[in-house]
Amino acid sequence: MNTLFLEKEFDYFKPETLNEALDILAEKKDVRIFAGGTDLIVKMKIGDSYKIENMLDINGIAELQKIDVSPNNMMIGATNKISVLEKNADIARRFPALQEAFLSMASISLRNMATMIGNICNASPGADTAGPLLCYGASVKIVSKGKERMVPMEDFFVEGGKTILQPDELVAEVHIPTPKKNTGASFIKISRIKADLAKLSVTIVLEREGSKVSACRMSIASVAGLPLYMKEIGDDLVGKEMTEALVLETADKISKFIRPRDGGNRTTAAYRRDVSKIISRDAMKLAWERSGGKF
Ligand SMILES: Cc1cc2nc3c(=O)[nH]c(=O)nc-3n(C[C@H](O)[C@H](O)[C@H](O)COP(=O)(O)OP(=O)(O)OC[C@H]3O[C@@H](n4cnc5c(N)ncnc54)[C@H](O)[C@@H]3O)c2cc1C
Fold first, then answer.
1. Which of 54-58, 221-225, 232-236 has the lowest mean pLDDT?
2. Is residue 1 in some structural domain?
3. What distance in Å separates the CA atoms of residue 261 and residue 266, rounded to the nearest whole number?
4. Ligand 1 pocket test, candidate residues 31, 32, 39, 104, most atoms within 8 A of CB
5. Does the Cβ of 110 fall within 6 Å of ligand 1?
């Protein structure tokens, strides 16, 4: 049941260094990381079996607040709020589909609290930033005491609500490579009202060489247990002449590929399947036009 109160008792930690945070994760039981809390606190209120003994607030850790930009890469630290990232000029210029995803999320007050990395760690099937990060070829830097590993986004999700993160690990950074010249990208989301989770969202990032597609990454969210990266459908476009017919054929493939569920309170499987075709078509056309391509 939702309630205004947090009924469970827990210890609260707010370390100032990453090492201290990693010690807490290594030594304590049932630690939950608090970034913006916009998913965590909801789970603590309504998840009767949600285990929390210790809350680890990572907002005091200066190392996680960084954003680094180099010609080939952008690094975003874990505690950067979405309302900051949505105004970042480098993100707007290099990764417009990611900026579109940020702006589609909830309300300004929510985005003032929420983080992009909390969004992917929560691993909701409809996480808005998952599609753009998958399609831009991002990787996450996962750290634990004395260890770190870089994992491509397509290997990060295990199932709805579950990532590859171990209890002693946290995501410190996301790294996104700069797209090549003649890249076009789009993110389109359908929701009941603006401030709501997606009924469905599609992300496309494609590279153009003349009138042909030279690379394409596609993702669709809210149509399966986890955000889907459609590698084969995207790869299948490589080397092909872009035409309206190819767009329609690909949109049709996508609507047959997805496995939407009935139920939930946002929409039906039939609606998601129908709309996936239309949104995929629109997103592909937009990405192609943004790459400088013509039909
Ligand atoms: C009213 C409302 C509207 C919303 N609308 C949208 C929407 O339109 N689109 C959308 O995608 N989502 C939406 N959400 C969900 C939520 O706001 C987002 O998923 C948000 O980005 C989560 O970020 P956070 O920093 O608040 O995460 P938190 O709640 O702090 O954390 C989320 C989960 O990730 C874990 N975590 C956080 N940071 C790390 C880390 N660095 N390493 C490891 N684990 C970590 C936490 O322990 C927790 O399990 C909405 C939520 C609410 C309440």
1. 221-225
2. no
3. 11
4. 39
5. yes
Q: What is the DSSP letter of 117?
A: H
Binding site membership of 32 for ligand 1 (Cβ less than 6 Å): yes
Residue-wise pLDDT tens digits, 90-133: 999 999 999 999 999 999 999 999 999 999 999 999 999 999 99
The pTM for the full model equals: 0.96
Pocket test for ligand 1, best of 122, 134, 188, 199 (most atoms within 8 A of CB): 122
| C-alpha closest to that of 74 among 189, 212, 175, 211 | 175
Q: What's the domain range around 270?
A: 183-290
Reduced to 3 states, what is the DSSP secondary structure of residue 190?
strand
Which of the listed residues 149, 177, 205 is the one where a domain comes to its end? 177
Contact by Cβ (8 Å): 168, 25: yes
pLDDT over 70, % of the chain = 97
* For range 178-188, the mean pLDDT: 97
CATH of the domain at 19: 3.30.43
Please give the distance, rounded to the nearest whole angstrom, from the Cα atom of residue 124 to the centre of ligand 1: 9
Q: 14-50, pLDDT tens digit by residue?
A: 999 999 999 999 999 999 999 999 999 999 988 767 8
What is the tally of structural domains in the chain? 3
Residue linked to tokens 């491509």: 152
